[in-house]
């Protein structure tokens, strides 16, 4: 049936339009950037805790640390034995005093590590916020596309389904009329070579089931 084939193509075309909305499916990048930002913040907390421990120890010692030695290291290149002894004695004092550096260096490194981690997290937060906005806008576009075309599809289908029902009714009527013509063509029992009576043929027409499945639009 030509009209059936045309309507089937029309339905398929409408479904393809709805499927094209998938091109507007929201990019789920927001979830990925959210997870990366969350992981970064956990690392930032860990680095802050490490910095706090190391710098608290350093600051606690620094504020009560003794003054530096007053001796001089300017005779570092001397060849005089007595001056050399004085230099080395002073060097020992400075060596002991510079023990605070062993506390300062871990604090300094932990502070820099925390600052770098914090800066990285700020960037990831910015990425997350941008992708969340994009996701929301893409979602609106996707939903609008689906809602619009599904509405058109539903409305279009009502008309197509009615045409389908009409075609099935026409086909069934034609089959029954064709059957009834056979009743008229059937002669009296005495004249009928097959012995089939008009009543028998008519009963078959009344009881017949007409298959219209081939006219159904998927």
Count of DSSP-assigned helices: 5
Low-confidence stretches: none
Sheet/helix structural class:
mainly alpha
Proportion of strand residues: under 5%
Total beta strands: 0
> H/E element string?
HHHHH
Rg: 47 Å
The mean pLDDT is 81
Shape: rod-shaped
Distance between the termini: 15 Å
What's the main sheet like?
none
Report helical residue fraction: over 70%
Can you describe this structure?
- The protein is mainly α and 218 residues long.
- The protein has helices at residues 2-19, 29-62, 81-97, 101-185, 198-207.
- The longest helix has 85 residues, at 101-185.
Topology:
Elements: H1 2-19, H2 29-62, H3 81-97, H4 101-185, H5 198-207
Helix pairs in contact: 1-4, 2-4, 4-5
Gist?
The protein is mainly alpha-helical.
Task: State the main characteristics.
218 residues, mainly alpha, 75% helix, rod-shaped
